[in-house]
Amino acid sequence: EPEVTQTPSHQVTQMGQEVILRCVPISNHLYFYWYRQILGQKVEFLVSFYNNEISEKSEIFDDQFSVERPDGSNFTLKIRSTKLEDSAMYFCASSGSLAGAGETQYFGPGTRLLVL
Amino acid sequence: AQSVTQPDIHITVSEGASLELRCNYSYGATPYLFWYVQSPGQGLQLLLKYFSGDTLVQGIKGFEAEFKRSQSSFNLRKPSVHWSDAAEYFCAVGGNTDKLIFGTGTRLQVFP
C-alpha cells in the first residue's frame, strides 16, 4: 500500500539554525500539506500546496516557514531560523484531489523536531 | 468558530469490552468528519470518514462511527476491543477548505 514517508524521523537543532524537513508524498497525489503537533497539544494545520503554489496557510505559517516541491517526488518544509517554540512533531500529508471536497489526507509518520 | 472537542483525554477498557470515543464538532459549513489513529512512533492512520449519505460509517479494524447532525457528534465505536487497539485516537473535521481541524485526542489503554 502506498504511503507518505518523511525524513528525518528525529532532528535536534540549535535555536536560530535553519532546518529542512522532507516528505515524499504518495506518488499520484497532487495536494500536499504540513501539520504540526506540539507535545500535548492538538494537531494543527500549517499549509497546503498545490500546483507549485501555497493554496492555504494558517496564522502559524509566518515568514519563517516556506514550502517547496524541488522535484517530482519531494515536498519540503523549511524553517529559516528556528525558535524554541518550533519544537514539535511535524506531519506531512497528501491527497489525490482537493481536501475541501472531502478527499482523504494521508499522513506520514512525522518528524520530531527539537530546538535547543 | 470551527472546532473539535474530544471530552475524554484518557480511556481505559478491558480487552473484549465495548468502546465508544466521543467527538463533537462546531463547523459552519457541511462537515466532512474523520477518525484517525496514531500508534506510538507511527503516523496518523485513517480509520474511517463521513462524507455524505449513510450516517453510520464502517471503517478498518472493526470500527464504526455515527454522524448525528442534530447533536454535532461523530462518536467512534467498537463492539469488542483488542489489546492492539491501544493508541491515540483523533477526530477531525474538514469541509470547504484544505485544512483539517483536529481534536486533542483520546488515549486508549487496554487491559488484558
Description:
The complex is a heterodimer of chains A (116) and B (112). With 116 residues, chain A is mostly beta strands. Chain A has strands spanning 5-7, 10-13, 19-24, 31-37, 43-50, 53-57, 65-68, 75-79, 88-95, 106-107, 111-115. In chain A, strands 2, 4, 5, 6, 9, 10 and 11 form a seven-stranded mixed sheet that branches. Chain A has a four-stranded antiparallel sheet with strand order 1-3-8-7, with no helix packed on it. Chain B is 0% helix and 52% strand. Chain B has strands at residues 3-5, 10-14, 19-21, 24-26, 32-38, 44-50, 56-58, 64-68, 73-78, 87-94, 101-102, 106-111. Chain B has no helices and twelve strands. Chain B has 112 residues and is mainly beta. At the A-B interface, strand 4, strand 5 and strand 10 of A face strand 5, strand 6, strand 10 and strand 11 of B.
Offer a concise description of the structure.
Chain A is an all-beta fold and 116 residues long. Helices cover 0% and strands 49% of the residues of chain A. Chain A has strands spanning 5-7, 10-13, 19-24, 31-37, 43-50, 53-57, 65-68, 75-79, 88-95, 106-107, 111-115.
Topology, element by element:
The complex is a heterodimer of chains A (116) and B (112).
Chain A: E1 5-7, E2 10-13, E3 19-24, E4 31-37, E5 43-50, E6 53-57, E7 65-68, E8 75-79, E9 88-95, E10 106-107, E11 111-115
Parallel strand pairs in A: 2-11
Antiparallel strand pairs in A: 1-3, 3-8, 4-5, 4-9, 5-6, 7-8, 9-10, 9-11
Chain B: E1 3-5, E2 10-14, E3 19-21, E4 24-26, E5 32-38, E6 44-50, E7 56-58, E8 64-68, E9 73-78, E10 87-94, E11 101-102, E12 106-111
Parallel strand pairs in B: 2-12
Antiparallel strand pairs in B: 1-4, 3-9, 5-6, 5-10, 7-8, 8-9, 10-11, 10-12
